[in-house]
């Protein structure tokens, strides 16, 4: 039984987990949002409690800042962010907790991205905003970077 407050995307990536993790964590701006949008991380403290400041830029001049906190950074396995806490432990939002993880599968890697919401209404709103095509495009971009060399 699935949780109505959680949305998820998964992909099999034909590359070893070490390579997928390297691309996920060290080339994050290259896959983080669907093209032609682009992401810039002004700050990403890779530790629980670390600050995350990302701004997404659209092709028509759109600017969407996404500040939050790193909840988990398990090297080689997963990271998680939330928009519920920003800056120096200031409450915000909240809208969701995002969890991006990998695990070995056969000769490659299973990538999974989850968005956990506080309410079913927020989950539905995120789905209606285009969660599946948006996060799916990001997963496809990550897959292409990992498999492409």
């Amino acid at each position: 039984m699935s949780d109505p407050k959680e949305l998820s995307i998964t992909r099999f990536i034909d590359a070893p987990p070490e390579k997928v993790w390297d691309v996920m964590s060290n080339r994050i701006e290259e896959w983080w949002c669907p093209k032609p949008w682009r992401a810039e991380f002004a700050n990403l403290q890779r530790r629980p409690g670390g600050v995350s400041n990302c701004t997404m830029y659209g092709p028509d001049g759109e600017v969407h800042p996404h500040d939050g906190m790193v909840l988990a950074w398990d090297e080689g396995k997963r990271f998680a962010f939330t928009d519920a806490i920003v800056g120096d432990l200031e409450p915000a939002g909240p809208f969701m907790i995002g969890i991006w993880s990998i695990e070995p599968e056969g000769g490659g890697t299973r990538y999974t991205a989850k968005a956990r919401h506080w309410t079913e209404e927020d989950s539905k709103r995120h789905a209606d905003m285009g969660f599946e095509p948006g996060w799916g495009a990001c997963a496809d971009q990550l897959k292409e970077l990992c498999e492409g060399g």
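The CA atoms of residues 101 and 132 lie 17 Å apart. Helices lie at 17-26, 28-31, 120-129, 131-147.
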